[in-house]
Amino acid sequence: MEFVSIQTAIQQAINQKKEVMEKVSLRGWCYRERKSAKLAFIVLRDDTNTIQCVIERAIVSLETWTFAEQVCIESSIWVQGTLHEDKRAPTGYELHVTNMGIYQLAERFPITKDQSTEFLLDVRHLWLRSRELTNVWKVKAEVLRAIREFFLHKKYYEVTPPIITASSCEGGSTLFKIKYFEDEAYLSQSAQLYLEAMIFSLKRVYAITPSFRAEPSKTNRHLTEYWHLEGEEAFMNFEQLLSLEQELISFICTWVAEHAEEALKILGRDPEDLKKIITPFPRISYEEALEILKKDGIDVMWGKDLRTVEEEALMKHYDKPLLVTRYPKEIKAFYMKDDPNDKRVVLCCDVLAPEGYGEIIGSSERETDVNILIAKLKAQGEKPEHYNWYLDLRRFGSVQHSGFGLGVERVVRWLCKLESIRDAMPFPRTIKRMTP
Ligand code: 4AD
Ligand code: MG
Question: How do the domains of the chain map onto residue ranges?
Answer without folding.
Answer: 6-104, 122-424
